[in-house]
């Protein structure tokens, strides 16, 4: 049986879900972002208790098909951008369609209807968050970041970064330096 969970986006979330399943005596087959496969069928009492326990951790059980699909889309995008070193070489729409087994038009219209933004904008926002993260680590140059995230050029990355954040990547990076210097002077 699959259980779908909203806001499950990190290893820490997976650990919390694992602990909650364990406390209820449930045995999992696998735990992925947004979905847990368990061996047993949930009783109504177990479902309610799991829902309450997860809510304390900021997670939420999903029951309706549209919400489940939206979480699947978000989790595929999050995993693709934040947890894979290689973004798909082919088109994002093809990747999502192949991964989720739905026509991209259906995925895009459902996502837009529920979230109020396009899948493409959600992907851009996630890519920019990943760029910010990599800039803060200060291990890669902007050229290396552009290559890693499959931007066509540094100028394309910079333009998209500026459009989303209102800042240039280099200015964003200097903000981090200023904060670090200020903290050292405390």
Can you tag this structure with a few keywords?
Alpha-Beta Plaits, 4 strands, 9 helices, 186 residues
* Number of separate domains: 2
- In what order do the strands lie side by side in the largest sheet? 2-3-1-4
Q: Give the low-pLDDT segments.
A: none
The CATH architecture term of the largest domain is Orthogonal Bundle
Q: What is the molecular shape?
A: globular
By DSSP (H or I, 4+ residues per run), the number of helices equals: 9
Order of helices and strands: EHEEHEHHHHHHH
Largest sheet: 4 strands, antiparallel
Which class do the helix and strand fractions yield?
A: alpha+beta
Bin the strand percentage: 5-15%
β-strand number: 4
Residue share in helices? 55-70%
CATH superfamily of the largest domain: Homeodomain-like
Assign the CATH class of the largest domain: Mainly Alpha
Query: Between the first and last Cα atoms, what is the distance in angstroms?
Result: 53 Å
CATH topology of the largest domain: Arc Repressor Mutant, subunit A
Walk me through the structure:
The chain is an alpha+beta fold. It has 2 domains: 1-63, Alpha-Beta Plaits (2-Layer Sandwich), CATH 3.30.70; 64-186, Orthogonal Bundle (Arc Repressor Mutant, subunit A), CATH 1.10.10.60. The chain is built from 9 helices and 4 strands. The protein has a 4-stranded antiparallel β-sheet with strand order 2-3-1-4, sandwiched between helices. Helix 6 packs across helix 9 (169-184). The longest helix is centred in the middle third of the chain and has 19 residues, at 65-83. The termini are far apart.
């Amino acid at each position: 049986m699959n259980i779908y969970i909203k806001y499950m986006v990190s290893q820490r979330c997976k650990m919390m879900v694992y602990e909650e399943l364990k406390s209820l005596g449930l045995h999992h087959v696998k735990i992925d972002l947004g979905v847990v496969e368990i061996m047993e069928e949930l009783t109504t009492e177990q479902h309610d208790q799991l829902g309450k326990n997860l809510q304390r951790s900021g997670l939420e059980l999903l029951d309706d098909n549209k919400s489940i699909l939206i979480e699947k889309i978000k989790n595929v995008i999050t995993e693709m951008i934040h947890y894979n070193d290689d973004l798909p070489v082919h088109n994002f729409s093809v990747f999502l369609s192949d991964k989720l087994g739905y026509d991209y038009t259906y995925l895009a219209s459902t996502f837009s209807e529920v979230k109020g933004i396009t899948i493409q904008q959600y992907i851009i926002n996630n890519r920019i968050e990943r760029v910010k993260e990599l800039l803060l680590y200060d291990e890669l140059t902007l050229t290396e970041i552009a290559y890693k995230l499959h931007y066509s050029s540094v100028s394309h990355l910079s333009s998209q970064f500026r459009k989303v954040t209102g800042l240039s990547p280099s200015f964003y990076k200097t903000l981090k330096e200023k904060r670090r210097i200020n903290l050292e002077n405390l």
